[in-house]
User: What shape does this take?
Amino acid sequence: MSLRHALLALLEAGPMTGYELAKQFDQSVAYVWHAQHSQIYTELRRLEGEGLVVAETLARGDRATKRAYTLTPEGLAELRSWVREVEELPAVRDSAYVKATYLEYVSFDEARAQFRAHRAHYEALRDRYELHADQLARRETALLRRRLAGSPGAAHDAIVAFKVHAYRGLIARARTEIEWANRGLELIDRLSDGGASPK
Amino acid sequence: MSLRHALLALLEAGPMTGYELAKQFDQSVAYVWHAQHSQIYTELRRLEGEGLVVAETLARGDRATKRAYTLTPEGLAELRSWVREVEELPAVRDSAYVKATYLEYVSFDEARAQFRAHRAHYEALRDRYELHADQLARRETALLRRRLAGSPGAAHDAIVAFKVHAYRGLIARARTEIEWANRGLELIDRLSDGGASPK
DNA sequence: TTACTCATGTAAGTAGTTACATGATTCC
DNA sequence: GGAATCATGTAACTACTTACATGAGTAA
Assistant: This one.
């Protein structure tokens, strides 16, 4: 359950409404933990029920309302203890790799299409990660600034460095996938060649 | 839904009982798509209901029975069309990376413990992948032999090559994670040093 | 007035997990 | 006789997805 802790971490930067939180989420944590807005609203209610956050109902126009959430001391304690805890990593479940294992069932061209899609996907991801890593390193994101503003100057370097390091890891990961797809395409060239001309 | 297709792919090598299938699964597909045995039995019943496999009830001792599943032509067609289909890759959801982003909440030593655990996990995975890749390359696994025996000699190289390529990808992935963890440990050394001695 | 963004949800369904249950056969 | 392994499931639960619903404020 990373979602609840990701939400607690976002709120550590300061109080936010569900909608604000969802927006911030999409521009930060969502790179490492995706969630739908509907799930965020449900989880916030649950966190409130457990006393890890408190909500304040605010007016929005004359008729409607919104709810601003604030982290409680219990919420902060829960966040810290979660980050401290060493978790079992979940078992692998990667459908692209199971397909790659059974590419003999389709034509070489169809197999190529799989690797090209894989490459394109990770190239796009890599670009987004690089952009975000640069913004973090330059301390340009709104959320990071808010967080830095609320913590002692001596801690700033570590806060930034850990985040940048995580994104550098994601970039390395994406590059590994791109290389794998390229080697897959080369493999298919060799296989389709080998069957046709030489020997 | 890769589980159903992974099961179809296993049955393409020949008929198997649920239990046999579960055992084969653990030694092959589980490296890329983990599933519990309970889930496999449920999924087999569903596949049977959809006509993608047929089951034959066999005696086991005097009183008990077991069910042997065979792939139907519809099942094979479904398998092929799934491998052909280019899927959207699911959004990232990696709790180790969200923790890495928030390591400023814990001590340097606790942060080190996270990276060490991460490294140990992927070292173990890498070793298992390497072993399996070697076995596949030498055509030593029972399942691969069964599959090769049932397909024309000209196709053998491709069948083996695709599987080996998938495992080489997993190995590369594991190595990337190990390097990331090592760089994380170096980062913590720099951060804890920087605060203590120089400047 | 139309479209967009702000804002908050519910409801139904799927995939997967964890724990439990039961009994047969085989090997020591 | 006991332990391991063969063999097949059910039940309750959790996380997440997809689709839907509703309405307010704001800028063109």
Notes: Helices of chain A lie at 2-12, 18-27, 37-49, 73-84, 95-101, 108-137, 142-149, 156-196. Chain A is about 65% helix and 10% strand. Residues 1, 3, 35-36, 38-39, 60-64 of chain A lie near DNA strand D (CB under 10 Å from a C1'). Chain A touches chain B through 69 residues (CB under 8 Å).
